[in-house]
Amino acid sequence: MTTIEAPRSPSRPARRGVNLEKWGWIYMRLSGFLLVVLIFGHLFVNLLVGEGVKAIDFGFVAGKWASPFWQWWDCLLLWLALIHGANGMRTLVNDYTNPGKVQTTLKVALGAAVIVLLTLGTLVIFTFDPCPAGSPAELLPSFCPAA
Ligand code: HEM
């Protein structure tokens, strides 16, 4: 007689320590929920409020990033979405490749891309200066005092 195991029985003995796959699964749901708020807030403020999409230019971005509120909004959006997207891609790599060199290379490339993009993106958000001191006046936007 064939015995069918209960659906939730572990396929191998449970491992000790932190279950990273479980936390990754929880992260996808929590970040997905927060991303809905952050993405729709971003689209509403940039595309609908005031003059809408026609108002977007260099000065619009400079104005938003003059406020710590929008700097932190965009920073949170960047970190949550990038890590969410990369963890989702990791799932796809696990699903479509076998363990081995190709899989490892893809995951290392993914991790490297995440580190580079998070570093550059965070630096841009917090060090952005629309009126850098010492720039030639003709290169500065009209709202800068030195222009
Ligand atoms: C409205 C915002 C978003 C919500 C609510 C959301 C929700 C989710 C959820 C719940 C999953 C897990 C699905 C599963 O395990 O079966 C998922 C997977 C994924 N998400 Fe998002 N997500 C959002 C935005 C994004 C963004 C901005 C990106 C890209 C940067 C992204 C890329 C991915 C990828 C690549 C996967 C893996 C797909 C797969 O396993 O087949 N998502 N998303």
From TrEMBL:
Superkingdom of this protein's organism: Bacteria
CC terms in the record's Gene Ontology section: membrane
Principal subcellular localisation of the protein: membrane
Keywords of the record: Heme, Iron, Membrane, Metal-binding, Transmembrane, Transmembrane helix
GO molecular function, one term: metal ion binding
Keyword Iron: yes
Database matches in SUPFAM superfamilies: Fumarate reductase respiratory complex transmembrane subunits (SSF81343)
Gene3D superfamilies (UniProt xref): Fumarate reductase/succinate dehydrogenase, transmembrane subunit
Any single Pfam family the record assigns to this protein: Sdh_cyt
UniProt-recorded name of the protein: Succinate dehydrogenase
Transmembrane segments: 26-49, 69-87, 108-128
Keyword hit for Transmembrane: yes
Annotated localization: Membrane
Classification via CDD domains: SQR_TypeA_SdhD_like (cd03500)
InterPro entries: SQR/QFR_C/D, SuccDH_FuR_B_TM-su
